[in-house]
Fold:
Amino acid sequence: MSISVIIPAYKAAQTIERALASVAAQTLKPIEVIVVDDGSQDGTYEAAQAFKENLQGVHLRVFSQENLGAGAARNRAIKESAGDWLAFLDADDEWLPDKLAISMKAIEGRNLTLHAHNYISIKDAEEEPVDCAARYRAVPNPYVGLYRKGFLATSTIVAKRDAIISAGGFDETLATAQDFDLWLKVLKEKDVTFCVDPDFLTRYHVTSGSITSHTRRRLDCSLRIAKRHAPGRSDLRYRILAVHYEAINASLALGQPFKALGYLLVLPGRWLAA
Structure:
């Protein structure tokens, strides 16, 4: 059960060493780590290359490309990968040492196509446990529950490479939420099995420049994905409400009440159109 670690990196010179160090510390070693520098100009490529001798025997390959987005960077890494399984890790996140061992044990024991787990969110030195497994267990149909509430965190996921390839990889036309779109594409197949376990095995670092901080862009992409994968009309309407609620709260948190009001005003028309 060979594993390739997929790391897209953009302006990650200050965090890529932490991510790679967490791979080196795994009790179950992957066969390789593939880092794709997505057009950074801060020394990300050089910082990744400099860690080669510290990976405890794990083969590291670093590629660079023009700035095409996280989806394109992940697709490039997948194309270059040799493992039967792909473990996704963002360049500003890190794994606990038993992450791969626990994920692969679950995959082998339950014949899964995709495995995920809980994570610890870290913002301004404050740590908050995020219980994705509870949302997974709370619904009778995990796929519909995933569509409605989005409980898969990319840096927790290990998935079968063939399933990712068959689904077409990441949609590079989506500026954000490409990962959510891909998991929905993969998991809609009837013979695909997945699970979200309660172990906290990933530390997710929230930064001001992270891709999830772009509220308007994230809302637009989320609406495209919602229409693309809706299991039913009621699910689509639920998802439209959810993504607008997220955008309104994000705007208020950023001190942008007029933007929040704008999202609120367009919501009824979009909900009715669904």
Summary: The radius of gyration is 18 Å.
